[in-house]
Amino acid sequence: MILPIIAYGDPVLRKVGVEIDKDYPNLEELLINMRETMDNAHGVGLAAPQIGKAIRLFLVDTSPFAEDEDLEKEEQKFLAGFDRVFINPKILDETGDEWAFNEGCLSIPEVREDVFRNDTVTIEYLDANFEKQTETLTGIAARVVQHEYDHIEGILFTDKLSSLKKRLIKKKLDNISKGKISPNYRMKFYKPKKK
C-alpha cells in the first residue's frame, strides 16, 4: 500500500527514532508499504519518520543512479545492486574528504541544494532478517545512507545548509509546511491542534 509521505513542518521529522525488535507490529507489511511508497515517489531512500513513524528504520535503493553516465562503471554496477533495509543502524565512522552533491528529499519536494558530506561511511545495522551487518560505503551510496540516517536522528538536509541558503529557501519551506505544493505523490501535511 502506498502511504502518504510526511511533509516538512511535521514534528515527527524532528524526533530521534527509537530502536525496534523482531516483534515490532506488522514489520513485514511496513517494509513492503515503505518500498511501494518509495518507488511510487521515485525516491532512492525512505526513512520511517517520513511515513510518520519515529523508529530507527530506513530503506535504500540506489539503482536509479546506476544509469548516471558521469559515474565510473564500477560505481554504476555497485549502485545498480545496492538495495538494503537498515534496522537500528549505527554509524561507526565517517571519513574521507567532504564533497558537495545536489540533494533533495521526498518530505521537502521542489527543494534541491548542494550538501557537503564525508565520502566514506561505516555503518552497522540489522537487515530485514534481523541479521547484523557492517558495511563501509563510499560515494553516492554513502551519501544516500547518511541522508536517510539523518532522518532517524531528526535531522533534515536543509539543516546542513548555510544561513544564507536557508534564508533563500525559507518561503519554499513555508509553502511546503502549509501544503501549498503539488508533488506527483501523496503527502500528508501537518495541521497543529487548535488550542
Compose a concise summary of this entry:
Helix content is 27%, strand content 31%. It is of the alpha+beta class.
Describe the structure.
It is a single chain. With 195 residues, this protein is α+β, with helices and mostly antiparallel strands. The protein has four helices and seven strands. The chain has helices at residues 27-40, 73-81, 139-152, 163-177; strands at residues 5-6, 45-47, 57-61, 83-105, 108-126, 132-138, 187-188. A hairpin with a 5-residue loop joins strand 5 and strand 6 (132-138). The model has no long low-confidence stretch (mean pLDDT 95).
**Main beta sheet strand tally, sense and closure:** 5 strands, antiparallel
- Given the C-alpha coordinates, what overall shape results? globular
Count of helices? Answer: 4
Give the spatial strand order of the biggest sheet. Answer: 2-3-4-5-6
Overall tally of structural domains: 1
The overall pLDDT average reads 95
Proportion of strand residues: 25-35%
* Fraction of helical residues: 25-40%
Strand tally, please? 7
Uncertain parts: none
CATH topology: Peptide Deformylase
Order of helices and strands: EHEEHEEEHHE
Second rung of CATH, namely the architecture: Alpha-Beta Complex
Using the CA coordinates, give the radius of gyration.
16 Å
The CATH superfamily appears as Peptide deformylase
Structural class: alpha+beta
For the record, the CATH class is: Alpha Beta
Q: Please give the alpha-carbon distance between the first and last residues.
A: 34 Å
